[in-house]
Write a structure and sequence with these properties.
membrane, about 240 residues, zinc ion transmembrane transporter activity, about 0% strand, 8 helices, mainly alpha
């Protein structure tokens, strides 16, 4: 339980860490944004392919993997349809903290819930490597997300300090969701395999629906591709070091 809380806290704090450059920069170049997002995508694909999915099969079998994976994709798809993705960095026309700003914050709250559940399910598994692996991969995704949200809030006339605090609040929802996921999987052991597969489906949806298109839409496809591979290999080396 303590490991799950610590892991989810570190993952949530990555969102806050991503907002730290807010105090030093006012914008992020498209090239570096694409490179960072592609690197994150590589980390998440590696965690799903070499960690979550094989462990889900070991825990509950191939049927559980199929059901959980599809459920994770469907849940994220429904979230995206209910609260569509907003390109918060490029929306520079906002001049006041209006309903659209609130919508973005609510969307990230909801978006962070399955990420927190993924961390909780992973730490409930018998695989000691899986929890840290998922926490690192989600944390890597949270860092650019935190910076982009902070910049958006600044463009909405929110002070740097208040933007930083709002980013921190959106991150902490992951800790709560991780605790829920951990207890659910711990008390109903048969849920672990489904939960791990759900986490893989949710993360793969984020990669394919959000991260890859965002990293390949501004003319920097080649460096983004290399960054993706480096991110994938980085997670492989990290998991090897933990093993």
């Amino acid at each position: 339980m303590e490991a799950a809380i610590i892991g989810s806290f570190i993952s949530a704090m990555a969102t806050v860490l991503g907002a730290v450059p807010l105090f030093f920069v006012k914008s992020l170049s498209e090239k570096w944004k694409d490179i960072l997002i592609a690197f994150t995508a590589g980390i998440m694909v590696s965690a799903c392919t070499f960690g979550l999915m094989p462990q889900a099969v070991n825990e509950s079998g191939i049927i559980a993997l199929t059901i959980g994976l599809l459920l994770g994709i469907i849940v994220l798809d429904l979230i995206e349809k209910s609260i569509p993705h907003i390109d918060v960095e490029n929306d520079s026309g906002i001049s006041t903290f209006d309903s659209k700003s609130l919508l973005v914050i609510i969307a990230l709250f909801i978006h962070n819930i399955p990420e927190g559940l993924s961390t909780g399910f992973s730490f409930a598994s018998d695989n000691d490597i899986l929890g840290p692996m998922v926490a690192i991969s989600i944390g890597a995704q949270n860092m650019p997300e935190g910076l982009i949200l902070a910049i958006f809030l600044m463009n909405s006339n929110v002070t740097k300090l208040n933007a930083f605090l709002l980013v921190a609040v959106t991150g902490f929802i992951e800790v709560i969701a991780a605790i829920v996921g951990y207890f659910a999987a711990s008390y109903i052991e048969s849920l672990i395999g489904y939960g791990l597969a759900f986490a893989a489906g949710a993360m793969m949806f984020i990669v394919y629906k959000e991260l890859i298109p965002e990293s390949h839409g501004h003319g920097y496809e080649r460096p983004s591709t290399y960054s993706f591979i480096i991110g994938l290999l980085a997670m492989v080396y990290i998991s090897y070091m933990f093993s």
